[in-house]
Amino acid sequence: MATDSWALAVDEQEAAAESLNKLQLKEDKVEAPKPESNGTDPVDNGAEKTNNEEEKTEDDDKEDKAAQSLLNKLIRNNLVNTTNQVEVLQRDPNSPLYSVKSFEELRLKPQLLQGVYAMGFNRPSKIQENALPMMLAEPPQNLIAQSQSGTGKTAAFVLAMLSSVNPANRYPQCLCLSPTYELALQTGKVIEQMGKFSPELKLAYAVRGNKLERGQKVAEQIVIGTPGTVLDWCSKLRFIDPKKMKVFVLDEADVMIATQGHQDQSIRIQRMLPRDCQMLLFSATFEDSVWRFAQKVVPEPNIIKLKREEETLDTIKQYYVLCNSREEKFQALCNIYGSITIAQAMIFCHTRKTASWLAGELSKEGHQVALLSGEMMVEQRAAVIDRFREGKEKVLVTTNVCARGIDVEQVSVVINFDLPVDKDGNPDNETYLHRIGRTGRFGKRGLAINMVESKHSMNILKQIEQHFNKTIEKLDTDDIDEIEKINN
Ligand SMILES: Nc1ncnc2c1ncn2[C@@H]1O[C@H](COP(=O)(O)OP(=O)(O)OP(=O)(O)O)[C@@H](O)[C@H]1O
Fold first, then answer.
1. Which residues of the chain fall short of a pLDDT of 50?
2. Ligand 1 lined by 128 (C-beta under 6 Å)
3. Helicase ATP-binding domain location, by residue (predicted)?
4. What's the pLDDT at 122?
C-alpha cells in the first residue's frame, strides 16, 4: 500500500495548517466583573449563585465533536476495554448468524492477514467479530454499526475495503468519507498500515488542497476524503467515476451530521453510487438525528449495536465539602492533600479562568500540575494527557473538555472544584458520571470529592444524589482525622 501522486505535497501544507487551526477553539473572552460576596453562610443564603460560580462564556469549551474524536485517536493506542455485548439485527433473519473468533476464519488474503498481525491484533474485537463476516459476505451486505469510540470500527471497515479491492483495476473502487481533514488522515494511516504488505493497493486523499490536473483520473483503488472535496471530484471535476464504486464507507456519522453541509454532501455522493455498491455507516453514538441520516444513506441495512455497559458508581466513595468561597475551596483541597496520599488526581473546574487560577495556586504550593483546557490545540491536549498518563504530573486541572475518554489508571481521586452544570445551570448528571468515572476504573476503588459553595450548588448536589440514588457524605476538611478515614 502506498500513496503516490496524491500524497500531500508540500505546497498543500498550508491548507493542512489552516484546517488544523480550525480545531483550535477560540480565545478566552474577558469575563464581566462579579459583585462582591456578602460573606454570609452560603447554605442559608437563598438559591443565589455566589460570586465564585462564574458564568461560562459562550465559547468556553464549546463541544467540538471532531476535535474530541481526533483527541481520542491521538491519545488512544489500544482498544477500549469493553465487556459489552453486541446486538445484531439482520436484514434477512433466515440467513444463519455468523460470527468469528479469529482472523483466520475470515479467509483473508495472506497479505492482509499479515498486515492485521503486524498491527498487533491477535483476535477480533467484539464489533469486529460480527461486523467482519457481514461486511465480507457474498453478496456484500449493507451495514449500520454503532459502538463506542475505540472499539475497532475503523480497523473493521479498512479490512473490508482492502479485501474487496481488485488491484488489477487502476481506478477507485472504495470510497471512505471522513468528517474532517485530520480524521481522514488518521484513517488513511490505518489503511496504509494494514495494507503494508499489499504494495499494489494504492490510496488517494480527496481533501482540500490536494489538486489534480484538469481531465486527470484517479488511478488509486481506495479514496479517502472529506465530503466537499469528494463531491467535487465525483461531479464537477470528474476525477472519480462514482459508478465504479464497490464499497462506500461513511465514518463518524455523528460527527459528520454536526455540519449540515456535510450531511447534504454525503447524501448527494451516495446517490451517485451504483445500486450494488456496499454501503457501510459507522458512528460512536446513535441519537435520532444520526439514525435518520443513516437510514437515508444505507438502504436495507443490517444493524450492529454495542449494548452499553451499565456504568456504575458503586466502587467510588463520594463526599462533599462545604465552603464559602473559591479560596476556601482551595484551602480544603490543600487540607486533603496534606492528609492523604493521592497517586494522581483530576480536578474539574467550570471555566478556564478558574482552572488556570487553580493550577497556578497549586503550583505555588509545590504540586506538579498539568492544565488542560479548550483553547489548546488538539495535539497539545494529547501531549498533556500523555505526560499525565506517564505520571510526569500528579494533578491534572481541567474543564469539561476531555472529561470523556481519558483513561489513566493511577487516578485515585477526582475533585469537582465546581459541580457540573449544563448551560441552563441545571445539574449535568452525565458529565458527573464521566468525571468521577475517571477514578475507580476496572473495579478499583476511587474517591470523588465535590466542593459546594452556595445553596445553589448544594441544591445541585442534592439533585445529583437523587439521580444516582447514592448518598454523598459530608466531609469536614478541617478535621484531619476525618479526612484520613475516607482513604481507608
Ligand atoms: N482486533 C484488535 N486487536 C487489538 N487492537 C485493535 C483491534 N482492532 C483495533 N485495535 C486498535 O484499537 C484502537 C482503536 O481501534 P479503532 O480506531 O478501529 O476504533 P474505532 O472504534 O474506529 O474508534 P473511533 O470511534 O475513535 O474511530 C486502535 O489503536 C487500533 O489499532
1. 4-48, 50-52, 58-59
2. yes
3. 134-304
4. 92
Residues 96, 99, 105, 108, CA torsion sign? positive
Taking the centre of ligand 1 as the mean of its atom positions, its distance from the CA of residue 416, in whole angstroms, is: 31
What is the residue with the minimal CA distance to atom 4 of ligand 1? 121
Judging by DSSP bridges, how do beta strands 143-146 and 344-348 pair with one another?
A: unpaired
Question: How far is ligand 1, taken at its centre, from the CA of residue 297, in Å?
Answer: 24
Alpha-carbon span 255 to 135, nearest angstrom: 23
Measuring from atom 16 of ligand 1, which residue has the nearest CA?
A: 152
pTM here is 0.78
Three cell numbers written together for 1: 500500500
Q: Which atom of ligand 1 is nearest to the CA of 73?
A: 26
Q: Is 100 in the pocket of ligand 1 (CB under 6 A)?
A: no
pLDDT, residue 405, reads 57
Beta strands (DSSP E) in 244-322 are 247-250, 278-283, 302-306, 316-322
pLDDT at 83: 64
Give, for 348, the enclosing helix (H) or strand (E).
strand 344-348
ipTM attached to this prediction: 0.97
Ligand 1 center–CA 117 separation, angstroms: 13
